[in-house]
Specification:
This protein starts with 10 loop residues before the first helix and ends in a 21-residue tail after the last helix. The radius of gyration is 14 Å and the shape is globular. It has helices at 11-24, 44-53, 58-67, 73-86, and strands at residues 28-29, 35-36. It is mainly alpha-helical and 107 residues long. The chain has one domain. α1 (11-24) crosses α2 and α2 (44-53) crosses α3 (58-67). The chain has a two-stranded antiparallel ribbon with strand order 1-2. The protein contains four helices and two strands. Bound molecules: zinc ion.
Length: 107
């Protein structure tokens, strides 16, 4: 078993959510190399997705997200995901622990 740090949502569901948010937020690169996205500074998209794609209690999940620094949709991707990943040491996917690809979002 991996140590999954979130209590209200399981890993696979969270990854699905992140993928959905990733496209919903239109995460993209600008010509100058910086990353931009459309965030309305709410958790509307996150809540909507949870309510439509899971049987989880969205209030509980959002409460945990906020606790972990996810106060809007993009912060779920940025902050909550980094918490989730930090703990995922036994997550022996394609992550070698060399440089630990630290340039933010990658799926
Ligand atoms: Zn945001």
């Amino acid at each position: 078993m991996t140590t999954w740090p979130l209590e209200t949502i399981d890993e696979n569901t969270f990854i699905d959510l992140c993928n959905a948010l990733d496209s919903a937020l239109h995460l993209r690169q600008l010509p100058d190399g910086s990353t931009t996205w459309d965030c309305d500074h709410t958790l509307t998209k996150t809540r909507w997705w949870i309510e439509h794609h899971t049987s989880l209690n969205a209030d509980h999940v959002l409460e945990e997200f906020r606790y972990l620094g996810g106060f809007c949709d993009c912060e779920v991707l940025l902050n909550v995901m980094s918490v989730a990943r930090e703990d995922g040491e036994e997550y022996e996917d394609e992550e070698d622990d060399e440089e630990g690809a630290s340039d933010g979002l990658h799926f």
